[in-house]
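Subject: Endoglucanase structure
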Amino acid sequence: MAAIATEWVEGVANSHDYGDALTKSILFFEGQRSGKLPPTQRMNWRKDSALRDGFQIGVDLVGGYYDAGDNVKFNFPMAFSITMLAWSVLEFGQTMGSDLQHAMEAIQWGTDYFLKATSIPGFVFAQIGDPYGDHNCWERPEDMDTPRTPYAISKQFPGSEVSAEIAAALAASSLVFRPTNRAYSARLLKRARMVFEFADKYRGSYNDSLGPWVCPFYCDYSGYEDELVWGAVWLFRATKAPYYWNYIQANVQNLEKSGSVLEFGWDSKHAGINVLVPKLMNTQTSNPNPFVTNADNFVCSILPESPTVSVSYSPGGLLFKTGGSNMQHATTLSFLLLAYSRFLRKANRVIHCGNVVATPARLVQVAKSQVDYILGSNPLKMSYMVGYGNKFPQRIHHRGASLPSISQHPQQIDCSEGRTYFASSNPDPNLLTGAVVGGPDIKDSYADSRADFEHSEPTTYINAPLVGLLAYFKSH
């Protein structure tokens, strides 16, 4: 399998413009913005939307991002996307060039909203918009007339995973802004500590309190223990306070109970914790610890030649895990490989997967093969990023992209009227530049159909880790 993947990569790899792809991967976030758009908005077919979010309960909850092709603000995956954008900038920002400013604006669009969503002590807003009402309509965000119900967690109805992930996003982002805007950075960090304390003190899953609205969309399947440790890791990185280090040590055994050390994504933070902690500890090989062991095992679960590989690869070389929207696995897991390769290089070590020796360079190579596949080094020779290359998805599962923009069609398009556009085989009238879709099936085929949402829907959490990957390959 690995050999097949390499053939595709060698055939087309040299022709990829990682800088262009990086610019577009960040621009995508402007197409997902909710709220009052700024004068600097570059994706001009999008207009203001959801300007009264929270007003029915007297709280300003305007802003943030739509997670995918719908018009709901799901704060759990949104927070993970912001954490990953921040990590992308912290790890690879020095090679982003003029895109760094846009990446920081994308982060701040999220953190400004999370400051609002956590502004009332004892409450954290977890979601805005009734998902069933929204999913039954095919409407532009600018036209929305479905209920914009705000859903909050509280002391009585806890939701540790969403609160702790918001804390992680705020803490990671505070590090991004520290060199350029100390006051804003301090504000984010202060709020991160407060929200983390709330998440830890009132423990429970938001499945139990908000299950009818957050499930099945972003149900938490791996428990909230991983988010608590993940939040503590980012707070430790941002503060160096022994309290958070002790917290990590005291709670790390809960991770074994709550899910696989091989998982990473909006739902499960396990592998991310194990990759991030050694980088903070500057661990040397003479002092083995569970984080390094787990991170090594994670790498061995990804490499195609490893005897303990636990993911699948398509004939063309794309990494696959079970569950929809597969590209999220290709981007998040590749990001971890790249981040961990830098730690290995610094610690001057390799990983032994049985009799297979994995060098830092091999981790980079596997990550690059995934990025190249997304950009067009694949059997269909098509890019899975909208607007990149000559051949890319034309009918994505995305309301805004598939309906004519307000400037072309100022009249309201109501809930049922939008269905005609959904069912149309015409290409999208608006280019959601930089959007990476869920991707092909495990046989490398892609239908390019709006209705096939598992494969044709873009998400913020596919793009966020890709930003860091593209920044690295742009300069290497």
